[in-house]
Amino acid sequence: MKQYLKIFVHTEINRVNRLLEEGWELIDTSKVLYPDGGEGMEYHLGLPAETRVKQLMEIIRMYEKYGFKSDLIHDFAESKKEDLLSYTTEPELDMPETPVTRFLTLYEEAVNGKSVKYYKRKMHPFNDPALDYMDIDM
Fold it and tell me: Where on the tree of life does the source sit, at the highest rank (predicted)?
């Protein structure tokens, strides 16, 4: 059975057509009899869950395009008093899951379909003389 996040009943055909263009689906129609003897048609529309997921993914991709993903991750780590540079996806030292690594793992799985594991760095990049700079793409 199709899962709808919202159900909407409307009689105005232009509004119905606009909603259909936005991904809503026509579930049913019903005839309406008005007190003055007139008739009309009600359109029962549903917003499918997969349509809303697609819309949200478009929003997330726009956030990523303009750098808000990095801002989100940085600000979230800062709020949890965690240092992002102490983590890596390269196998180094095992570490317990933290609120930030839990969020990063969830984000990558939900948004990109990737399974990512985070490790503790053996040496923080600021303390590693072999590194002149650190390039982190999150």
Answer: Bacteria
pTM over 0.70: no
Coil, strand, or helix at residue 77? helix
Query: 97 is written with which tokens?
Result: 């899951």
Domain extent for 16: 4-50
pLDDT in tens, 82-107: 888 888 888 877 777 899 999 999 99
Q: Helices 99-112 and 68-79 meet at what angle, rounded to 10?
A: 160
d(C-alpha 93, C-alpha 34), whole Å:
72
Based on the fold, state whether residues 40 and 76 are members of the same structural domain. Answer: no
Question: Could you give the number of structural domains in the chain?
Answer: 2
* Closest by CA position to 20, among listed 12, 97, 53: 12
